[in-house]
Amino acid sequence: MTDTVPAAFTGARLLDETVAALSDRAPAVLAAAADQLRGIRLGLRFDDDSHATLTALHSRIVVRQDRCPDPDVEVVFDNRAMNLLFDLQHRPVDQVLPDSLDVRGSQEDTLAVWRAFTLLSRRAAGLRSMQELWGAYREQAPRLWGGAVPAAREPYADPVDWTAADYLARRSPDDAPARPALIGDTTVRAPRVLWDGRTSTSWSLEDVVRDADLMETMRRCRARTNEEIERLLPDREPRAELYDLMRSYPARQGKGLRPTLTIAACAAFGGRPEDAVRAAAALELFHNGFLVHDDIADESTHRRGLPTMHEEHGLGLAVNVGDGLNLLAVDAVLSNLETLGLARTLGLIHEAIHMCRESVEGQALELGWIRHEVVPEADEAYFTMSTKKTGWYTCMSPCRIGAVCAGVTDPAVLGRFDEAFRLIGIAFQIQDDILNLVGEEALYGKEPLGDLLEGKRTVMLIHLFRTAYGHERPRLLDVLRRRRTDKTQQHAEELLAAMRRHGSIEYATDLADRLAAEGIARFEDDLRIIPENEGKAVLRQIAHYVTSRPL
Question: What is the pTM of this model?
Answer without folding.
Answer: 0.83
